[in-house]
Write a structure and sequence with these properties.
This is AbfB domain-containing protein. Keywords: Signal. The strands form ten sheets. The chain has a six-stranded antiparallel beta sheet with strand order 28-27-24-35-32-31. It is built from four helices and 35 strands. 5% of the residues lie in helices and 45% in strands.
Length: 461
Amino acid sequence: MTPRPVASRRTLLRTLAALPASAVLLGEAPGLLGGALAAAPPNGSATRYTIVPFLNSNDGTVNVYQSDDATDFRLLRASAYTPPAGRIRDASIFRHTDGYYYVTYTTHTWQDPSTTIGFARSSDRVSWTFLYDYTVPIANLSRAWAPEWFVDSDGSVNVIVSCSTTNDEWIFTPYRLRATNSALTAWSSPVALAGIGANHIDTFIVKVGSTYHASPKNETTKYIEYATASNLDGPYTIRRTGDWAGWGSYREGPALVRLDNGGWRIFFDGYGDGNYYYSDSHDTFATWTAPAALPAISGTARHFTVVKETVSGGPSLARNVTRSFRSANYPTRYWQQQSALLNLPVVSGSSTTAEKQAATFTVVAGLADASGCSFRDAAGNYLRHWDFRARFDPNDGTSTFAGDATFFLRTGTASGSVRFESCNYPGYYLRHYAYQLRVERSNGTDLFRQDSSFVPATAWA
């Protein structure tokens, strides 16, 4: 039997945090990475995550992918940007206060000296314009790799870049560059991040409250480590080393983003085995879920960062009304409670009154997050997952129950359809299998998306 899900930590999920290199388009200033409260998007809006990775087969161009759940990324534009010269590796993306999306990237293949980092911008994420290559002003510089955007809570725009010198071209140290104009064409002198030290690469930073949290890769052990500081420039204290998070070795390119349920997701390149992984934390980086390969793009995408936005045009579902829910790919079948379990039988005009009542539910604001939704039956019980099976139980008032019974709306595959993502198990969806409703992890396939899409319909009873 599938293990019982770990209890959610609702208090920790509500902490204020600065989102790394993200922008919220509705209700907050784009590009400001201050103390934004993580929550599901309101009715009619949608969360959008965008990545711009280079390809395992080609480091001369990047694809653009987008996702509404940070799990199932779909191709938006293939070969969206090819620089006029050199390569494009390790592309980091953010949305600036001028409304443009910017990427910065490594300009040469790993075998060659690389003293510049590249910059390009786009108004729509799919058509990109080269801006310039910037020579990082470090004496005897050999390589400048993996530039990562970091927008501080004061609005300052920074790039964290890993640099080595000619006396030891494979020993990297993280440096901070700060933009000195809003056009992002002038930069401060590089400042080494104190405390992280040499032989660390791909350093990615987020800020939670007044603390900076860094995730550098140790180039000797090949593990992603964890460090904290009270100042962006340090000094950092390395607090976790080795396989402290259970991610394994030969991992690089960490990038973090805040999820709608308040947790954090880290993405990293498992270059040792060819997969791209993600892992979640709900206790401010103390513990992490077992790493899972990203569906669809694992093995194709390489080193990327993520920009998160809230955009208009998302699914909408009225609260405090009764609805029935029809399968998008089995249109004669509806949600129906049977002996407390949620199944997907055929329901029609000739069904009995009891069968129609069992296929009718009241949509209410989410118990754990009012921007999400919960579902109540005629007896007052709530739809929740237990051992990943969908069932109805009385609300026991716990935060675990609230998380189990709350779902975030995502756009479905058919017109008017909705997908329901678990609040406390990000990337897991209500889906039907053998005409039973379960909560299962998205595998990125079209079939999964179809099986997890449902059309809100006029209530049968």
